């Protein structure tokens, strides 16, 4: 069976390769890849450029996810609702609509609680976790990276 630690080492290596590819294709500067020379009258090159744009978007997303995975945890805390109806950690980090959140959830009664990343949204009355609408945010164990 493969070891998680070895897979994480490989993920770091993958992140470096993704960064190299994004740099070479000029994606970081020009998401439309206009920094790459291509013959716009050559239908094959235009196809390749179009496909490469799609691939670069996905690679940038994967690279961002890997980067997030390796960010250090700044705080592990319990959420409390403040006087404005917003949820804050003990050190004051505030969650609003669209905020990424890591929450410790018990998804399967047969397994240990697990950190889950999702987003916070607001339904007009209160904030909730996308995909976990029935779990109250008050008192929720969270961590901030």
From TrEMBL:
InterPro entries, alphabetized: DUF5348
DUF5348 domain segment(s): 79-144
Name used for this protein in its record: DUF5348 domain-containing protein
Organism: Parablautia intestinalis
């Amino acid at each position: 069976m493969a070891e998680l630690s070895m897979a994480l080492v490989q993920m770091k290596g993958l992140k470096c390769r993704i960064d190299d590819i994004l740099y070479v294709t000029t994606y970081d500067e020009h998401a439309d890849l206009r920094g790459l020379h291509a013959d716009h009258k050559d239908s094959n090159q235009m196809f390749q450029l179009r496909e490469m744009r799609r691939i670069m978007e996905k690679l940038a997303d994967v690279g961002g996810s890997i980067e997030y995975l390796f960010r250090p945890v700044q705080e592990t805390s319990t959420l409390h609702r403040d006087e404005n109806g917003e949820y804050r950690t003990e050190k004051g980090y505030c969650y609003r609509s669209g905020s990424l959140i890591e929450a410790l959830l018990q998804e399967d009664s047969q397994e240990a609680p697990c950190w889950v990343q999702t987003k916070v949204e607001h339904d007009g009355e209160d904030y909730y976790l996308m995909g976990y609408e029935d779990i109250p945010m008050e008192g929720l164990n969270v961590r901030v990276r």
